[in-house]
Give the backbone structure.
Amino acid sequence: MIGSLKQKISKTRSAFTERFTELLHSDKNREEILEDLAETLILADVGVTTTEKIIDSIRENSRKTDPFPTIKKHLEEALLALLSQFPSNFRLDSSRAVVMFVGVNGGGKTTSLAKLAHHLKRQGKDVMLVAADTFRAAAQEQLQLWGEKLNMPVIRGQYGADPASVVYDALQSFQSRGFQALLVDTAGRIHTNINLMNELEKIKRVISREIDGAPQEILLVLDSSIGQNALVQANEYLKFSGITGIFLTKLDGTAKGGSVLSIVDELQLPIKFVGVGEGEEDMLRFSSQEFVTALLS
Ligand code: GDP
């Protein structure tokens, strides 16, 4: 797993390794090294606030005379501490588990939902999908295609139908057919004057009314390739209650993988999964240790 993550984040990684090689062969003092590290972090889209936190923590824990390899160890510890603040565990123990996917259009919501569906099916669960984005015909069709490919039922509503009522219908079918996991795709944008966050709250209320303890997870899907802009988008979604974690997409091929750090630090939410490609297998469980090792080693 580390091997593949390392390969997937190679663009973000190479900026770090190049800088490390330079520093290893230089005679810079701690302050100069920290300046270089701060620049590398910012170029990898870590964000200014989070970068400052990381640099301060290294300064606090190291000595002025420490050589680069020791400082690099402190960097590793600082990144790990930052990423491990929130547990990224994901277990759908319940026999009736519901997972909601929220996020702006184009971020990778439907694809990520399909990846998780595939993963759960491979664990032996009967999975049902519901297209609650009734405002975009293309979104419904896309989910339908995934359902056919992965061989699982997809519940859809009429174009423009109330999303919460489509979810209600799906819940009835889900329970009566005895399925174990229901994954809910939601709209990223609504073309009427209905407030999207209110709409999401309504869907969530319908789910928790029908099934005790559900939705067990609400995943906010964020696109890592837009770096710091993902944070701007995410802030809007923090108005919606109950997000349990982040599904960070498109980590393959981006040089902005440092956004992982500011996302956890600024949103105060764990990253639970990362998307590393367009296929159903291209998903990894997020592990702080693996990420830090892949980034720095
Ligand atoms: P939605 O509008 O949020 O539902 O986004 P989609 O699921 O339609 O994804 C938008 C585009 O991003 C599609 O072309 C997907 O194939 C692509 N995509 C989604 N996740 C990933 C990923 O992890 N890596 C890459 N490279 N592309 C992805």
The chain has a mean pLDDT of 93. The two ends are 14 Å apart (CA to CA). Residues 103, 105-111, 142, 188, 249-250, 252, 275-278, 282 surround guanosine-5'-diphosphate (CB under 6 Å). Strands lie at 97-102, 127-131, 154-156, 181-185, 217-223, 245-249, 271-275, 283-285.
